[in-house]
Amino acid sequence: MSQLSTRKKEIAGDQSDERCPICLDKFKNKRQLNCKHEFCKDCLKQAEKANGPICPICRVVFGKIVGDQPDGRMSHQILTIPLPGYSDCGTIMISYEIPSGTQTEKHPNPGQRYFGIRRQAYLPDNKEGNEVLRLLKKAFGQKLIFTIGTSRTTGMDGQVTWNDIHHKTSTSGGPDCFGYPDPEYLSRVKEELKAKGIE
């Protein structure tokens, strides 16, 4: 092997092992995440500022994501009627209430009004349904369930809208009507929550 190809191999090895994948320079104050990916401390700080505490390589959450959901209230109650596909248990009915208010610097149009909402969602009152309820409460506490944006149904701006964590807002009608039966729903919503660091 020639001296030149040996040198190229050494450089390639250096680039993959001793260089930050963000700035492509040698590490400065190297930080390793739980997923084992390594970055310069300042590069990771900039990436976190832009995208939240998510590994730029594998997308694993390494910190606490806090959303821009306006203040509101989440409560739940147990209904005795079963959901389609869950005949052996009752139903958890979740109620969300986000009052209207003024957008902050975190929102699309600071200083302008936003219009609040009331929503209900449903889970089976079994072990997995209660686990999802616990995760949804955690996500609500971290302001991740709702955001302010354009309503998909009305096209109006300045609306409180769902924020990519899907809910069953109907007890029946199947997936097309945002209801049950939908045997994959609980595992899907747990994956959506996990993608936001909620486990």
TrEMBL record:
Cited PROSITE patterns? ZF_RING_1, ZF_RING_2
The record, for Pfam families, names: DTC, zf-C3HC4
Protein's UniProt name? E3 ubiquitin-protein ligase
One GO cellular component assignment for this chain's record is: cytoplasm
Q: Which SMART domains does the UniProt entry name for this protein?
A: RING
Q: In which pathway does it act?
A: Protein modification; protein ubiquitination
Quick check: keyword Chloroplast in the entry?
no
- Provide the primary localization: cytoplasm
Record's InterPro entries? Deltex_C, Deltex_C_sf, Deltex_fam, Znf_C3HC4_RING-type, Znf_RING, Znf_RING/FYVE/PHD, Znf_RING_CS
What's the top EC group for this one?
Answer: transferase
Q: Does the keyword Oxidoreductase apply?
A: no
Q: List the GO biological process terms.
A: Notch signaling pathway; protein ubiquitination
Per its UniProt entry, which superkingdom is the organism in?
Answer: Eukaryota
Enzyme Commission number(s)? 2.3.2.27
UniProt record similarity statement: Belongs to the Deltex family.
> What range does the record give for the signal peptide?
none
Residue ranges occupied by any RING-type domain in the UniProt entry: 20-59
Q: Which UniProt key words apply to this protein?
A: Cytoplasm, Metal-binding, Transferase, Zinc, Zinc-finger
Q: Which GO terms describe its molecular function?
A: ubiquitin protein ligase activity; zinc ion binding
